[in-house]
Amino acid sequence: MSAAEAPRADGAVETFDCRVAFADEVIKLARADQRIVVVCNDSVGSSNMGAFQKEFPDRLVNVGIAEQNMVGVGAGLANAGMIPFVCAAGPFLTGRATEQIKADCAYSQYPVVLCGMSPGMAYGELGPTHHSIEDFAWMRAIAELIVMAPVDPAETRQAVQWAAQSGKPVYMRVARFKIPAVTGPDHQFEPGRISTLREGSDVTLAAIGTMVSRALDAADLLAEEGISARVLNVSTLKPLDDATILKAARETGRIVTAEEAVSSGGLGGAIAELVAQHHPVPMRILGVPGFAPTGDTQFLLDHFGLNAAGLAKAARELMGKGGD
Amino acid sequence: MRAVEPTFERTADPENLQHIASAVRQKIVRTIALAGLGHVGGDLSVTDILTALYFDVLDIDPANPLKPDRDRFILSKGHCAAAFYSVLSLRGFFDPAAVDTFMKPLSPLNGHPNRRKIPGVEANTGPLGHGLPIGLGAAIGAKVTGQSWRTFVVVGDGELQEGSNWEAAMAAGHRGLDTLTVIVDRNRFQQGAGTEATNRLEPLADKFRAFGWDVIDVDGHDVGALRDVLATRGSGKPRAIIAKTNKGRGVSFMEDLVDWHHKVPNAEQVELALKELAR
Ligand SMILES: Cc1ncc(C[n+]2csc(CCOP(=O)(O)OP(=O)(O)O)c2C)c(N)n1
């Protein structure tokens, strides 16, 4: 899917497809731990699991085009003492098998790592059936399921490592849309902890996944206008790092959220629920307002104002400085 | 999008149908090359089935796409939208030139059929395993209201690995829904490998029979044979037509190669493909 892989900047910044780091890390873990298995749905190629299959042919279970079965099999493998990474395109994994994720994995507390590949609008041109934008809302509603969206290759590796040893059911987005690395060499991913990528005092930009690098760009735009924006990388949507959010609410008094997901029930919803109950502040929730039109990922993100200009505009509005 | 003069008229003549199928295939290859995306292998395997249905069998009216007593058609393997759009447009549902916008920003022709944007489309498919339950519901609806129109659903063979198909198959058999026909595009390949290597389907005919269906095997590239089988009605049982096809049919370097599930031909390959398809 060439269009979705086009670098977002002018090519000056190196960008990454997180599936590469993801697959590499799973293979590394599998070499050290016989319990690591992969389950997929005719998605060996799109999950970038070809190399895993080659090295561990017996530890890759391709159930065919059968997502409900796939997740049930994942729970059964966990029951047998294995650590399954269940890999499928985000929309079909989370949509088709929601009940299996809820009952078989989360409620049963089986440590299945559910990996939503090519999430958000990575399959832009293929249309809304293939957009994984409801996954945050759907998965966030399931008790005891950890929901994460590692932001770049380094964080993806760390999230994979953590999920494998956590003993918990986890849903993880594995991004395909190419984004630059935003975490530094000292960054240590900790589930449930938000990393503050930039300090700021006027407004908080809380972003997840593909939106994080765009939030950083927005902070640059705002800085030029004398607005000091704090940028948060919310790589774990659930459990949410309440303390960091409430601190930001208190210290900056305004929050803009941005996600490549429907604008209800996801990151914006989670933060709104929290601040409304503990420290209400004005917010702008940026996301996808409905079924998206056709177009490549880059086009769609811009179409919905999910870019630096859109975030900056929302921040300006919260500052009472009007739009542009 | 509006009805236009059909490029080809309805015909029962196998030779004419074959000629139309060849035009459809050329349009598919051009469309996918232009979009730089698509599912050419499955498009080319399903072409003759769609041609037989749309240019002869189906009781439909492009000028009145929602006429209440129309036959219903559902392309469950919705990733083969390029074939579907090509056929619908050449039949006059909308301007064939519009197909050039396939998957372009803001085009109504997105990668999977959308009933809200494209006349002639009954269901928004794309996630596999949805078409047969919808077709079942439509067929039950016809029966309950005492109407005689028919419902046709085309499924991919890999798609049959989804359990929802078998839930629908069981219910259709139970109800003896003889206005319902499923056509399996049996090209023996799915996305990553052969169906039999991934999750075996055979003996496929026995499976349908066990669920109470009549099963008919047909050469899925013999448009004449397809139209003959599809034009006749069964009685007392739903029908499964297992159409033996080749993925990438008609293009020598694509045929039966799983790579071409969604590979896009380059300029040179397009030229070669068009030459082969024009023969
Ligand atoms: C529920 C669901 N899971 C996975 C996919 C991804 N996918 C698209 S096409 C395809 C293979 C389909 O194979 P088949 O039904 O045999 O179609 P054909 O070979 O005729 O193209 C897959 C797995 C999907 N569209 N929907």
How far is it from the N-terminal to the C-terminal residue of chain B, by CA?
32 Å
Helical content band of chain B:
25-40%
Bound molecules: thiamine diphosphate
Number of helices of chain B: 9
The chain-level mean pLDDT of chain B equals 97
Query: End-to-end span of chain A in angstroms?
Result: 34 Å
Q: Kindly state the percentage of residues in helix of chain A.
A: 25-40%
Mean pLDDT of chain A: 95
Count of DSSP E strands of chain A?
Answer: 14
* Largest β sheet strand count, sense and barrel closure of chain A: 7 strands, mixed
Q: Care to count the β-strands of chain B?
A: 5
Please state how the strands of the largest beta sheet of chain A are arranged side by side: 3-2-4-5-7-6-12
Largest sheet of chain B: 5 strands, parallel
Q: Please write the string of helix (H) and strand (E) elements of chain A.
A: EHEHEHEHHEHEHEEEEHEEHEHEHH
Order of helices and strands of chain B: HHEHHEHEHHEHEH
- Write down the Rg of chain A: 19 Å
Low-confidence stretches of chain B: none
Could you state the oligomeric state of the chains shown?
Answer: heterodimer
Q: Strand arrangement, largest sheet of chain B?
A: 1-2-3-5-4
Q: Give the radius of gyration of chain B.
A: 17 Å
